[in-house]
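Weekly modeling sync, notes
Attendees: AB, CL, MP (scribe)

Item 1: holo prediction request
CL wants a bound-state model with ribulose-5-phosphate before deciding which constructs to order. AB pointed out that an apo prediction alone won't tell us much about the pocket. Agreed to run with the ligand included and paste results into these notes for async review.

Input as submitted:
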Amino acid sequence: MTQDEMKFDVAQAALKYVVKDTIIGVGTGSTANFFIDALATMKDDIIGAVASSVATAERLEGHGIKVFDLNDVESISVYIDGADESDDGLNLIKGGGGALTREKIVAAVAEQFVCIADESKLVSVMGDFPLPVEVIPMAANHVKRIIEKEIGGQAILRDFTTDNGNHILDIQGLKITDAKALETKLDSIVGMVTNGLFANRGANVLLLGTQNGVKVVGA
Ligand code: 5RP
């Protein structure tokens, strides 16, 4: 089975977590795209969706799914999104696609976070995937210096502008053994908008596409 076939399978499996007659949150990336395409088959069962990126909003709307501004909704039943890495505590690294800030906001509002990924994303210690952090452009070098001095690793500026008009630093060379503490520490750096650790609000369930079918972690 290819990686895309595993992503397709977890996307299909995630439909079971969609709460009918509610507004759901939808993530960003190739796995989320498989989910959006799957969601189109039951679009009349939901009121609509809040998107975590412009690209996701466009794909949802392309399928005729109503997209809501987060300020116009009072609750989100479930948020469904991919990840770059997960540990077995369902702490995540996200932001490979650069949408981490809106993803973190939608995840914070949602009652449940269902993460969908292929088996390559589950690791024992996170950090091989560079940890993205979104920064206010004028603060990029300041944030880079603080990270390298106080956290470690090497913070590399990505050639990318986020949907919010900000920049991204990717921190290479970390071994993340206490994701919650690191997330909190990174959050205290002035000039950083969001870091890509989803630990203090991690996933409730991880659906993992494997060669032997979809495995449910943490249900
Ligand atoms: C985007 C993300 C994605 O969820 C993450 O990068 C995984 O993407 P993919 O499903 O394409 O592997 O956090 O900001």
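Recorded for review: The two ends are 24 Å apart (CA to CA).
Action items: CL to compare against the apo run; MP to circulate these notes.
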